Amino acid sequence: MPGLFVTFEGGEACGKSTQVSRLARRLEAKGCPIVLTREPGSTRAGEMIRHLLLHTESGVNLTNKTELLLFAASRAQMVEEIVLPALKVNKIVLADRFTDSTTVYQGVARGLGLEFLRNLEDFVCLGLKPNVTFLLDLDLETMRSRQLRRVRPVEAKDRMEELPLEFHQKVREGYLALAREFPERIKLINAARPEAEVEAVIWKEINAILG
Q1: How many domains is the chain partitioned into structurally?
Q2: What is the pLDDT of residues 90-125, one digit of tens each?
Q3: CATH code (residue 202)
């Protein structure tokens, strides 16, 4: 597969979206063709699923299995409609979340089981794997502090952010376990540092990959 597939992972308020935007600007300045995605979302169907999962009263009582399958549906559409076509024409895809999020949020924190999720991942993603993943690790105290400082419209409350601290602790532990399991792909970064420092670490890694 030509192109480059870069994913950003981490718990809530870790700065993923900020770092995706910063890296995108740097790559564009170098003339690199890029495509941005976010999960759930990115396609018309995916954005509807995102709204249901994160921002509606209808999504409050979703079962864990329903939640998992909705995330998978959004990803399946995105992979075939956006990611694979972009990689085939040698573009760089920057993804705000991908399969590691499902492994951690639904597999570990929701307790749905990793073996089944990895079989589902193969079916949904057609064998697609990230070339590199930046895992922005953030302690729970800093996470909550950042969440309190966020300014959101009233209607934009995020269902996942509002889950209890015990859930987010499981998420963090799940991510750290993945980083130990896949050290060559997953680059662990301390996200409590200033944004510019985090950006510099990411840029150094990307430059090494691009040569």
Answers
A1: 1
A2: 999 999 999 999 999 999 999 999 999 999 999 999
A3: 3.40.50.300
